[in-house]
Specification:
Elements: H1 3-16, E1 48-58, E2 64-67, H2 71-88, E3 94-97, E4 106-110, E5 122-126, E6 131-135, H3 138-151, E7 166-175, E8 181-187, H4 195-206, E9 212-216, E10 218-219, E11 222-223, H5 232-235, H6 252-263, E12 268-272, H7 280-285, H8 314-329, E13 335-337, H9 348-364, E14 368-372, E15 385-388, H10 392-400, E16 404-407, H11 410-413, H12 435-439, E17 455-462, H13 470-477, H14 480-489, H15 497-505, H16 508-513
Parallel strand pairs: 2-3, 2-4, 4-6, 8-9, 8-17, 9-12, 13-14, 14-15, 15-16, 16-17
Antiparallel strand pairs: 1-7, 5-6, 5-7, 10-11
Helix pairs in contact: 2-3, 4-6, 8-9
Bound molecules: ligand TNX.
Length: 528
């Protein structure tokens, strides 16, 4: 029995019968029409939501209308059609229009929607007749599309045609992020990950409105980005990984392909070249980078803190200038990450002038520095960002110099930590991080003297000493990544673990439809 007939019959019955005698549903086999937008388990939780008690339905007649004359919005329309068509089988098309479209359709447009929405916010208005998504900037439309996607049944994520109906509860959502930087880090140095794996990770994290992916491209065990002026970095330094596997590296073309893929999803790639420590792969590739002019052996273990570039040699700065110049040229985003962590064998008296000099090299190539919190021991440039991972004292030194802080406290945000003592993968030096531990914290109250105004955002690093492939990556990052994404997006006043554990549990069907190998945490109230 079809739904329209069903509601007509109900209407008729309502006229004839007392309301109490009405059957609850015409056909119990069909899922109930969603009518309460407030019941939807959006993640991250939106800033404001008003439910209006009816619903919109995608049908054979539905199209996506986009504002005429803007190719970027048209591309977003195509992206949305690509998300809806495989599972619905509805062949939803993309049409351009000069004005608001006729009823029955989805409409994407830029609109001056109020300054509080900022560059990433959006307004999603759903009525029985239409879905109107508007934003100040295209990025906002992209995030609004992620919300729309989550309002549809989880089966929308399937790649083959599924049973409908495809209905969305009505109401209005106005939503925008708390922090401008909401990111993940992937260590492709300890174990290498192929372009396809990185793209899948980009897709998975962008569903939760993350907008930054930091790639840790070099470490003791591997150098993973082609540098044309120093080819041995990858020819030799990229030839292995932890455990002695074949390793690998990105050619500059492959890296640019990742950058473009991310950009199409409003995500910025932040490349990291870790220095002066964590450099054994470079030291093995070129003898000249060592103080004793002897190339080191390649390293496939998991110790840290034993390597350093020879910071007192001029050649080192020529080397860094070449690397930064080539990397800056293929990185449209504003940041280059210079590492700077755990340089245990670089004397502090050499470390400080080194960081100072590298900051000016990065600035000369038009980029802004991010470094791990140890760099705050140097003299920071006004726009340098300090990534807090270990010592509040370092981050505070950064703030005292006017730097912004990126929050990645290891005991909360490190997704390479085990969930509990039984987790097979991962490390535990910063503690076990169950889903509650990873969610119940606020960047603005983590460290004394570091408030919201000092914070650029949050990032969840995945170090890969023990993580060897995409399935293992998924297991460590899901479901912790959505929690970090929400900490970055949703105001602290709207976050509550008891509510979150239920809402996260409702992502189950979506995780499964997307084929994510997630950790079934006992802390989460798993639903459909
Ligand atoms: C510390 S976090 C490191 C990494 C390791 C990680 C393992 C940081 C800046 N340095 O080199 O991979 O611990 O959890």
């Amino acid at each position: 029995m079809n739904k329209d007939f069903c509601s007509l019959t109900a209407l008729f019955a309502a006229v004839l019968l007392a309301a109490a005698m009405l059957p609850m549903s015409c056909n119990p086999a069909l899922p109930a029409t969603p009518k309460d937008l407030a019941q939807d388990a959006l993640l991250p939780r939106p800033v404001s939501l008003e439910a209006t008690g009816s619903s919109f339905r995608l049908t054979e007649k539905t199209d996506i209308y986009v504002e005429a004359g803007n190719p970027e919005i048209e591309r977003l329309g195509q992206y949305l059609a690509g998300l809806l068509n495989p599972a619905t089988g509805l062949e939803i098309g993309v049409k351009t229009t000069e004005e608001a479209p006729p009823s029955g359709h989805i409409y994407l447009a830029l609109n001056n929607n109020g300054p509080e929405l900022g560059p990433e916010g959006y307004q999603l208005e759903i009525t029985e007749k239409a879905v109107n998504l508007t934003a100040n900037q295209p990025a906002g439309l992209f995030y609004g599309i992620q919300t729309l996607r989550q309002l549809l049944p989880a089966a929308i994520e399937q790649q083959e045609k599924q049973e409908g109906p495809w209905e969305i509860a009505s109401g209005t959502i106005r939503d925008y992020p708390t922090y401008p930087y909401r990111g993940a880090m992937l260590d492709v140095a300890r174990h290498f990950f192929a372009v396809e794996d990185v793209k899948r990770y980009i897709d998975l994290i962008s569903l939760y409105k993350m907008n930054m992916l930091h790639l840790h491209l070099s470490d003791d065990q591997g150098w993973r980005i082609e540098i044309k002026s120093w080819p041995n970095l990858t020819a030799k330094g990229g030839s292995t990984e932890v455990g002695g596997g074949a390793g690998g590296y990105f050619t500059q073309e492959q890296y640019q392909d990742i950058v473009q893929y991310a950009q199409d999803r409003y995500m910025t790639i932040i490349p990291e070249i870790d220095m002066p420590g964590h450099t054994n792969a470079a030291l093995a590739s070129y003898a000249v980078l060592n103080c004793d002019d002897k190339a080191r052996e390649l390293y496939t273990g998991t110790e840290v803190g034993f390597s350093t570039l020879c910071t007192t040699k001029d050649t080192i700065y020529q080397f860094i200038d070449d690397v930064i110049r080539e990397l800056a040229a293929i990185t449209p985003g504003p940041y280059l990450h210079i590492g700077g962590d755990e340089s245990h064998v670089t004397p502090m008296a050499e470390y400080i002038p080194f960081i100072n000099r590298v900051q000016s090299i990065v600035a000369a190539h038009g980029k802004q520095v991010i470094g791990w919190d140890e760099i705050a021991n140097a003299t920071l440039e006004p726009n340098t960002v300090v990534q807090y991972w270990s010592k509040a004292e370092n981050a505070q030194k950064g703030v005292a110099q006017g730097a912004k802080v990126l929050m990645s406290p290891a005991s909360k945000a490190y997704v390479d930590m085990k969930y509990d003592s039984t987790t097979q993968l991962g490390l535990s030096w910063a503690g076990f991080i169950e889903i509650d531990t990873g969610y119940i914290w606020d960047p603005a109250t983590m460290a004394e003297g570091i408030g919201k105004e000092n914070i650029l955002g949050v990032e969840a690093p995945l170090w890969t000493e023990t993580v060897t492939n995409i399935k293992e990556l998924e297991y460590m990052t899901f479901p912790r990544i959505p929690g970090i994404a929400e900490i970055g997006w949703t105001p602290a006043s709207l976050r509550d673990w008891e509510e979150y554990k239920v809402r996260l549990g409702k992502q189950k069907g979506r995780f499964e439809a997307l084929g994510i190998n997630y950790y079934v945490s006992p802390k989460v109230t798993w639903g459909e």
